[in-house]
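Sample A.
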Amino acid sequence: MKKILLVLGLIIVIGACLCIFFLTPEKLTPDNPKGKTVYYTMITAPGVQDENGRYGYELTVYNEKGKEKTLAFSAGKQLRKGAYVQLYKTLIRGVTHWEEISFEELPEAVQQEYQK
């Protein structure tokens, strides 16, 4: 019985530590890049509207070093075709925030990808 309580207590303590580590307030704020991976993309096609009125996108994105990957996200409005967008992505929640930026604000490695 004591071993069961000890193991159960350890599981609770480990779970609490993991929650504190992964769910710090900075990481939960959608528009704060701290604790998030930042990706850059260009809107190439109109988003597909879902039943909730949000527009879904699945686009090729680049990190600040120019590494490519495909990422899906949604926005509350149709994004302008040709616009450059900065995306903040978390491991668990996905893309939490996006904002339109100018070409000059893109990292140099990403600018080179779009100049090809």
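Sample B.
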Amino acid sequence: MNITCAHCSKTYRISDDLVHQICRIQLMCTACGSAIAIEPQILSEEALQAHPSGAALRQEVVENLKKLYPMPHILLKARTLLSGQKNFKELEHLLNTDPALAGRVLKIANSAYYGMSGKVSSIQMAATVLGTDTLLQIITLVGYSKMLGRTLEGYGLDSGELWKHSLAVAICARLIEETLQAKNGDDAFLAGLMHDAGKIILDTYIQDRQQLFSRYTHLTHASTTATEEKILEFTHADIGGELCRKWNLPETMATAIQYHHTPADSGGNRLAYVLNLADHMAKGLSTAVDEPPDHLKETLAYLPIPEIALKDLSRKAQDALESLEEDTY
């Protein structure tokens, strides 16, 4: 690559390696002594073209979803048994085929979060006392905890880190719906658990492009989602929405997950706005969050929740997370 001194116009041939450094380099012109600054190239076309991206890669990922990431068997069967004519006896038999899972379901049912400490001794009792929707919510927690508890090296997430965040978002989403007096709190809870599931699927693709991701985020300070969009040309939210569709979950939920970072693009999907706010609230439970970003201001304008109610929601969410976290992971 050639560079030219801005003062005396002397041209120098430099190594391409200098351009690929991640920091600004300053050389001295031997002719006039002036400084020549070499700005790092963020991403070269050659580097981007070395890895598949765009529609072809997205299609490959989507085609592998159902084969590589089927809905947990127990959860799939439980959803079937609890829809229509509810068969609690068969559900109890199903869960008892996996004693460890059944034990975890009962442990969570007796947690402080559900207010039934020590009172629930069987699956049928859980269904009677807590209701089928709550029981399915508990089974969902157990079913997803292993999948969401993985270490994600590409994203730099330790074991259990994604699970804790997903649980926090689920709790916040449900509390938001309750505050709005909506009737789909259970859908919001499930959507909260699933909102970042696309990261599990994309993690190996991120690892394959780790240098590109690290370089881009370091030089631009871009968010994870913006970096995915730049390098893959789609995001974990897009793939999370596709996973919901493969699992035959409601389209409203799939759309909400797909647009949980950009709810204004969701076509008025209210759950997308709920997830957007819940995601922001959940991050605030573990670390201080600065002034709300512009997109969150749009969300707060869309969802009629007073600021004082948000503070109360955060307190309730923190209490709920503390009571559930240990029992679910």
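B remarks: The chain has a mean pLDDT of 85. The two ends are 53 Å apart (CA to CA).
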